[in-house]
């Protein structure tokens, strides 16, 4: 892995104010989708000219804003704020209360993380294929995991967070709006590249993407105030528990066919507590890397 691969300071995003989510939305419609290989939507985006990279340790101003993107030529209905607001309203109806998380969800253009053929389904509450037998997570579970991670003893302040399983980069983009620094690891090289391509036009300065085995964590960047696993293992790897800061929260799906969302809090140097939250369904956590 080159230094360039390890550090991924994306360019600065410009931001605009957005209204709060509307609370009127139709119930989520879950659509079964084929696990076809996908191309990312952002490939069709006219990328904005590159700007000089900025320090990724820079503090980002309050995150009520939306990420402005160079809007691709797409049917207006697909990119409409109203469609995304309706998705956020459904997520709120399903029980996510954290306004900061809902605002972040409102800000990230999910359709840009999905291949054009599936764009019309970008704002339904379902996981969708992103290729390599992997999926973009369902918006509800993305929001729920971040909400749980934010409910710390620190008023929701998150300095460094780690995501295991970048996939197409969607959750990393949402996380970038609630944490000062986001590290995200992906074990499948083409997906790591896909996430880079998807995130580049969004110019998010505080995300660093890594290609590697997330089960090992990222000791060189630890400790983390929050760790989110986007893939389910039979147990949470010990390395990740050790990379949590004291008071830090890890949220992970655990299990095989039946999976539950678990919250693990580090309460001391050698002490962790575990809480089981709800049933969930994720792709499996696997060791090693795929080139
Ligand atoms: N975070 C994504 C979800 C991607 S699906 C989103 O925003 O929607 C989960 C991802 O976890 C897959 O891309 C899979 O390849 C990855 N994964 C599984 N085991 C992993 C591991 N040990 N290290 C890093 N990534 C892993």
TrEMBL record:
<feature type="active site">
    <location>
        <position position="137"/>
    </location>
</feature>
<dbReference type="InterPro" id="IPR000682">
    <property type="entry name" value="PCMT"/>
</dbReference>
<dbReference type="GO" id="GO:0032259">
    <property type="term" value="P:methylation"/>
</dbReference>
<comment type="similarity">
    <text>Belongs to the methyltransferase superfamily. L-isoaspartyl/D-aspartyl protein methyltransferase family.</text>
</comment>
<dbReference type="Pfam" id="PF01135">
    <property type="entry name" value="PCMT"/>
</dbReference>
<keyword id="KW-0808">Transferase</keyword>
<dbReference type="GO" id="GO:0004719">
    <property type="term" value="F:protein-L-isoaspartate (D-aspartate) O-methyltransferase activity"/>
</dbReference>
<keyword id="KW-0963">Cytoplasm</keyword>
<keyword id="KW-0489">Methyltransferase</keyword>
<dbReference type="GO" id="GO:0030091">
    <property type="term" value="P:protein repair"/>
</dbReference>
<protein>
    <recommendedName>
        <fullName>Protein-L-isoaspartate O-methyltransferase</fullName>
        <ecNumber>2.1.1.77</ecNumber>
    </recommendedName>
</protein>
<comment type="function">
    <text>Catalyzes the methyl esterification of L-isoaspartyl residues in peptides and proteins that result from spontaneous decomposition of normal L-aspartyl and L-asparaginyl residues. It plays a role in the repair and/or degradation of damaged proteins.</text>
</comment>
<keyword id="KW-0949">S-adenosyl-L-methionine</keyword>
<dbReference type="GO" id="GO:0005737">
    <property type="term" value="C:cytoplasm"/>
</dbReference>
<dbReference type="InterPro" id="IPR029063">
    <property type="entry name" value="SAM-dependent_MTases_sf"/>
</dbReference>
